[in-house]
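Entry 14. Ran structure prediction on the chain below.
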Amino acid sequence: MASDSESDGTATDAPTTTEGTDGATGTTGTPTTTEAPVGCNTLTVDPPEATIVIDNGVHAPVQLNALCDGQPVTATWSADASYIASIDEKGLVEAGGQYGGQLVVEALHGNKTAEATVSVFLKLDLVPPEITEADKSILDGATQPDTAILSYPYDGTVFPKGLQPAELMWHGSTPGDKYLVRYSGQFVDAKFYTLAEPPSRHTISKAQWVQISESSSGLPLYLDVHRMPAGQQAAYVLADDTWTIASQPLIGSVYYWANSLGRVLRINPGADAPEDFLLAGGQDGCSTCHSASADGTRLIVGGDINVSTWDLVNNTPVFSTANIGVPVRNWAMSAISPDGTVVIENGEMNLPGPPGGQPGMWDAATGAKLMGTGIDDLVLNMPAFSSDGRKIAYVDHANLSLMALDYDAVTRTAANPVKLVDPGADPTLNGIIFPSVTPDGRYVIYHRGAYPAMLDTRNGTSDMFLASIEQPGVEVRLRAGNGDDHPFYAGDRDRHWNYEPTFAPRSSGGYNWAVFTSRRTFGNKLEGGKDAVKQLWVVAIDENPQPGVDPSHPAFWLHGQDVNTLNMRGFWVHKNDDPGG
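Output, structure tokens:
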């Protein structure tokens, strides 16, 4: 792994040359500069392209020179991605030593400007003493496919920045096998030679993953895993996958129900463990059937504790419907407005509980019914606000079609109901359940299953779909997110167990992100039957879907969950202590 040491950026008297993988070169040294020649017409930078290679922490700077009509001149230098590299007043480019990437440098002389690009390439090699040079050569040269199978993560996954590194897991290994795990891309090549006894798993450090993911921001990242079986002098290709690293991290917190505890927990993407915040606030009873406001200020509880509205910022109770003579379960699985002030009860009476099912809107702090809302007499099944506060998605109480309403957060009124999708005639998919709206209010994600059995995720299979609000009648099955065509190690055991998707309140890196519940296996860590496995997964969905094209990507497990609890019904919000995100 790269060391923390860096060059001090001082130019040497004798220029040296550094060469990258693409052959681009640059020289180091103190440039000779003069005043602009009379009649200077064109400003250029020499060289126009250069490469710095950081080889396990060792690298040399690159000298750039400003030229007017081919003659050296003084210039004012600036650069964009300073975390990758920096440039001093003499045009000397010094890599930060931690990340690969591309730096755009600008030279200013008089009223003229010129640009150059400096590519910084990061190389890492980690070799334990058990791996010999001969082992490395054999592992590097693997070309034939292996009989072992990488079971997690999935080929084609889109990962955001800022998460913990994914734990690689595979089946089919034997004791004493040796491995090469390689992450490579346009600006990075990281090789980890390792052992991994069955059940075989491998995780790089968080610091190493930050280096690799930052060096691949917005770009493909290639994963290669080669295995040399114990006692053999040959290696095989266990995985040859391609991931994408989104250019931005996820935001906010996920509030979910841990069945085994009977409480709602909170987890921040990138954390190592969830927060048992309700227990810390003095609540240890059943706090399930919840919903949460997109701004992260309010939690609505539909379980059995004597709390209906919970202040997430101060971790204190706000209101209980029991105080006005209404059962606490009336607000089970309700909709809560993005600012946490308005509740719409869930009208789906076949849900466990059941919820209250009363029409209209309610004040989240007092339980008073709001009047003149435009839906005073309308019962909405499975309602959900968009995080921008402009739309309400719901299922029609009478005909079970997916619907959408316009919402005005200032006047607290809804209007203009539009039918998006009919339930359809397929008895295995005629239930449209748990809709959630993209942050921009353009699309709705939901799961389909057999109605009414699939209102309870214990009662059958289900998969995720996406419908357009702007183009009613347009619906896409999220095949990649569901894993419809993925070659799961567990085969059909892992298909059609996808429920309760909820969008993050903001898009990031060109994707909308949805957390959902799945009963699929998790590598070689959770391999039980569907009743023993229920965890939260995250799927990236293209922010601007193409007509007729599945915009989803293979999902990843939300790091930090307890694999010993059955987890479900995630609600994604802005951070509880930062409502603005």
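The first strand starts at residue 17 and ends at 19. Will compare against last week's run tomorrow.
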